[in-house]
Amino acid sequence: MPAFTRALAEHLHDHYGYTSAVRLRRLGLTDRQREALIDEGVLEPFLRGVYRARSAPDSLEGRCLGICLADDRAVITGRAAGRLWGVRRMGASPVIEVRAPHFVNTLSHPDIILRRCNVLDPVDVVERPDGIRVVSPPRLAFDLAHPLSDIDLESVIEQIIDREWCTAQMLHDTARRLHHPARPGSARFVRVLNRRPMWMKPADSHLEVMLFDALRRAGLQGMERQVRIELPGGWAIHADIAVPAWKWAIPIDHVTWHGGRIDAQRDKENDRQAGMIGWQVSRVTDDDIELRLAQVTRELMSIAGRLARRAA
User: Which of 65, 97, 191, 305 is buried deepest, with most CB atoms within 10 A?
Assistant: First the structure.
């Protein structure tokens, strides 16, 4: 019987090129046949009892599955978990952080960082259909508080809430369950959460988070996100940032959504319609935020000062 069977080929194809000694035995391969595949260069060892097909492309999913195959207590966390979830601000580091109990010693690899812990409740773990175990979105946000800056953590929290992976209340519940005053990441998680009103709608993008944060640090009060404005023409728009008390809207023109002629014409019509009911619209662009944030913040605060004097 040949060692490399059609069943093995399909198995490797369906599992990112990774398998284990246990799964190979279930496919009918003997230990001698497995060793022959290694000697022939078809398989290569990855972790203890886990193997990778040399012909398979390297992938984050494959390496994460290999880790989960090596130890059924391992759970992917950190930036690697963020990339698996599709979270922004994660970068592209090959390092994979893994949550595991203190006594686990099966995951020795240059690209693996063990985050040993005593508390990893069932609510903290999600098992994907492909067999990868990853921390839940609330636990992910908590774990990311250590490596991320305040602004990047805020952006991640906004995205998680925006995608309805969890609620703001669930994040606060996670903070109460896991907070430790001696850990900087834990303190950052609580600090970032506490400055976000529970009722506030989530930001759509990192650029919105950046501008909101800059205006907040500049002292602007009364800001809300994704404010719905009913226009006289019979439709509604949502201002990315607004101060409803002054009827002041600050839309952010993303190139992806506002780059064409039709989009520009629609935006101008919306601005005229908003003006008809007393709203002032101050548009900013991606480049304004990415390249000229300090200048744009000063300009907007100057407008805010004028609006405040008018309202007084």
Answer: 65
Confidence of residue 180 (pLDDT cuts 50, 70, 90): confident
What residue type is assigned to position 263 of the chain?
D
- Give me the helices (H) in the chain, please: 6-14, 21-26, 31-39, 60-70, 78-85, 137-144, 150-162, 168-178, 184-194, 206-217, 255-258, 261-276, 286-291, 293-311
Dihedral (Cα; 55, 59, 62, 65), 10-degree rounding: 170
User: For residue 134, what are the β-bridge partners?
Assistant: 76, 126
Q: Token digits for 206?
A: 């990192």
Determine the pLDDT at residue 52.
97
CA distance 189 to 149: 10
Q: What band does 210 get if pLDDT is binned at 50, 70 and 90?
A: very high
* Cβ–Cβ < 8 Å for 23, 11: yes
Which pair of structure tokens corresponds to residue 189?
Answer: 């998680």
User: How far is the CA of 52 from the CAs of 1, 4, 38, 72, 184, in angstroms?
Assistant: 22, 14, 10, 18, 37
